[in-house]
Amino acid sequence: MSLRAFVNTPRSTMINPERIAKRQSKRGLIYAVVAMVTFSAVFTLVRTKRSQPTDTAITLNVQKKDHPVFDRLMRLVSWPGFPPQSRLLPPGIAAALWLRGMRLEAVFQLAAWGTGGISTVFKRIMQRPRPSSEGTGIKVAVANIGGTSFPSGHVIIYTGVYGFLTFLAHTWIRPAAIRRAVVGLLGGMLSLVGLSRIYLGHHWFTDVVASYLLGTTYLLGLISVYRRVKRWSLRG
């Protein structure tokens, strides 16, 4: 099926584009500021080790939900974030967009993977140990993981990569039924990955919260830049 069957001019540019763009930028800035202020509070709690009792209690409570279907779902949601697929899927999505003729979108989709770099920086700063089963009662699923715990690489990368893909799907996919299905699937994955990291015993609750906040801030900034560049390219 051709690209035109799936994409069209974004709905946000049909009526009063400049006014809508300014309103969206202002709203995005407010959300980003709130996210960073909240992240600073979470960072301080973790740094001073005041979050540990709550983190442990939340993990133990989440892991009580041990139904086989729930367990399979949690593992499935986390699967794209483990290597080697975690290193193949983000550039693969960008390449697919490029081949579909969405060159600008492909570039920004690849840039959304930059949340991985943010994760690396804060992991080195915090140096927080991952959850351990020794003396805690926490179950840690066997997986290809390493490094430190804060923030969650899975969550922050999902927020950037699949968050931006969700934005593109909502903006460009024209048939409403297909748009809702794609956005729903991606949104579900984004919502559940944080829970899956706690359930599998790979991260603490505050790791997950911090990752959503950092990733959302990056995503909002990326979307803002994309909109500006897109408007400029359409004028040209």
Summarize the structure.
By secondary structure, the protein is mainly alpha-helical. Helix content is 69%, strand content 0%. It has one domain.
Overview of the molecule:
With 236 residues, the chain is mainly α. The protein has one domain. Helices cover 69% and strands 0% of the residues. The protein is built from nine helices and no strands. Helix 1 (17-47) packs antiparallel against helix 9, helix 7 packs antiparallel against helix 8 and helix 8 (176-199) runs antiparallel to helix 9 (205-235). Residues 1-15 have low confidence and may be disordered.
Features:
single chain; 236 residues; mainly alpha; 9 helices; 69% helix
SSE layout and pairings?
Layout lengths: L16 H31 L4 H11 L5 H11 L6 H15 L3 H9 L3 H12 L26 H20 L3 H24 L5 H31 L1
Helix pairs in contact: 1-9, 3-8, 4-5, 5-7, 6-7, 7-8, 7-9, 8-9
How would you state the average pLDDT, rounded? Answer: 90
Domain tally: 1
Shape: globular
Class inferred from helices and paired strands: mainly alpha
Strand coverage percent = under 5%
Number of strands: 0
Instruction: Tell me the Rg in angstroms.
Output: 19 Å
Low-confidence stretches: 1-15
Determine the fraction of residues in helical runs and give it as a percent range.
Answer: 55-70%
Question: Biggest sheet, in brief?
Answer: none
